[in-house]
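dumping the sequnces here before i forget
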Amino acid sequence: MSTTRTVRSELADGREIVFFSLAGNTARPVPDVRPLPARADTAPSEIRRDRQTGDWVAIAALRQERTYKPPADQCPLCPSPNGDRSEVPAAEYDVVVFENRFPSLSGAGDDAPEPIDDAVSAPGVGRCEVICFSSEHTTSFAELGHAHARLVMDAWRERTAALFALTGVEQVFCFENRGAEIGVTLPHPHGQIYGYPYLTPRTMSMLRQAREFAQMYGRNLFADILAGEIDAGVRILVSDEHVTAFVPFAARWPVEVHIYPNRHVHNLSELTDAELDALTSVYLDVLGRFDRLYPTPLPYISALHQYRTEGIQAHGYFHIELMSIRRSETKLKYLAASESAMDAFVTDVTPEQAADRLRSAAS
Amino acid sequence: MSTTRTVRSELADGREIVFFSLAGNTARPVPDVRPLPARADTAPSEIRRDRQTGDWVAIAALRQERTYKPPADQCPLCPSPNGDRSEVPAAEYDVVVFENRFPSLSGAGDDAPEPIDDAVSAPGVGRCEVICFSSEHTTSFAELGHAHARLVMDAWRERTAALFALTGVEQVFCFENRGAEIGVTLPHPHGQIYGYPYLTPRTMSMLRQAREFAQMYGRNLFADILAGEIDAGVRILVSDEHVTAFVPFAARWPVEVHIYPNRHVHNLSELTDAELDALTSVYLDVLGRFDRLYPTPLPYISALHQYRTEGIQAHGYFHIELMSIRRSETKLKYLAASESAMDAFVTDVTPEQAADRLRSAAS
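..and the predicted 3d for all of it:
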């Protein structure tokens, strides 16, 4: 991590901003001169436990006011050379991360209240960050060069460690939502990083399965799944020395790809430079295939599954899950009653067909 | 059930169709003369277990060919007096149920294969039915009169008992998807009934919670949730002698209402006539509020949670969950990374605000 060149600054309302620079570049933030209202002293959101399932739900009423599809010349993620027009007070940047102005969860850190395990409601403590992948408004992650994409990986790695260190954060989730079809309101290429005060429901479900598997068989469930996919071969997209990408055996989405490092690690911090480089290459390869599937770019969700190294999270295995709701050139998969009300997914493409199509979409 | 007037017939490819009639009406099916291809002898779909979570996923590749937004004069759900133009060969009907021509799950019944508990894949055995709420192409459930809506309840009850009796069906799920915003491709007012060969993931999660609660406290979790809502009062929409409707404490959706009978039953079969009448009234009341929230009708999902009376399902408590993704007059809630990849819901309206708005939308 010591090799990543970072410059830290602060936005007008006290939010933290961190610039990550490519070799040869140096970030030069200017003062953020916008007259922003002060942030609330306490977490303005709330978490409530759904007693039907035991799952936490976050209620962030202030997010109704968040920025919604602004004109391109008012993009809050473009650089602002005079510090007066956007969230990024600088003439240029490579990759930048800052605290979300409209956070679903906030206030993690030294002053965070103690969590209460058996509560049914609690303040929405946590952390929500925005990560801009490039200062170019109209590019996309898939179009980044390898060094630039690797810089995003480095930024994810740095922020993962930083958020894991905050009191009140239990799980760190780096993700990208891409495409108006899934509700993205800012087209500038960016992702988000959530520090949740709880284990998310899907993570909890996966960790319980992995713990049970470890107790029964003495080995890691996800390593077993990866070995099974490599052995089967029929759903593999890429498998090199360090990293494997495949369509999972029971894919829930019309387009779904999981990318695993071949070695069991818990989060980005544990990967070697060689592994991170390989992960970057495979990630760019998969995103490129996504955009070659149809005449228009694929809307997708990219989700980094990362874990702490102790407790139940030690059963986790770092990997990236990518998924899309597009089921044909013109049709989307909607999450209707079976999926939304019962979590029971029904797909209309076999994972093997999906893998064939993605293999045909190689560059 | 003996009072419900039903007429049974068969479609051209052997699928079952059942007509339910209002008092004074009699269904008069004509022969279905369409040259439909024969159905497959075996379940053409597959279920696979996601080893990451233990959840089943259904893969129904033939559904890619299903009917997609046909012109109104080719609606497959309108009556077809000559038996040559739609799925309902009859001059008129009140409520009709038939097997889906493009089923996600099929083949439940006497010839169904034995389930294999620890398998990772199996044939997609089950049952998928379509229920048309009215022969009027442009009406909606909310606009049905009480007797007609009660007839739908009776049809749901009859089909629930019929599907529970089929070998290969573990869970029966009656639901309605309404609105193009959630992917509905046929505007004719209709719902669907799924007989799953497994407990759906959300149902499994709810039953595990309820079993744990019963072991700890010796009473039913859902009865406890209902009593708590009635006691709190702040999220109640309607509460009469038999039935209560409320916005749940940890609502996941911008609009979400749960309707419970006040007495613990497992499915529609156990309700008395008086309870079914009350449920019908409250259901129509809630749907009416939904359509008065905004200038255009609300897209929604309605999900009937029904259970068998033995095994882990005995911990279930019949209720209806209604939800909508519309979060303002012009905006939808999209299920992006937090919800889709991690099942971690973030809402931007408090359940108490949502309940206030629905209380203001009384007729």
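Chain A has six helices and 16 strands.
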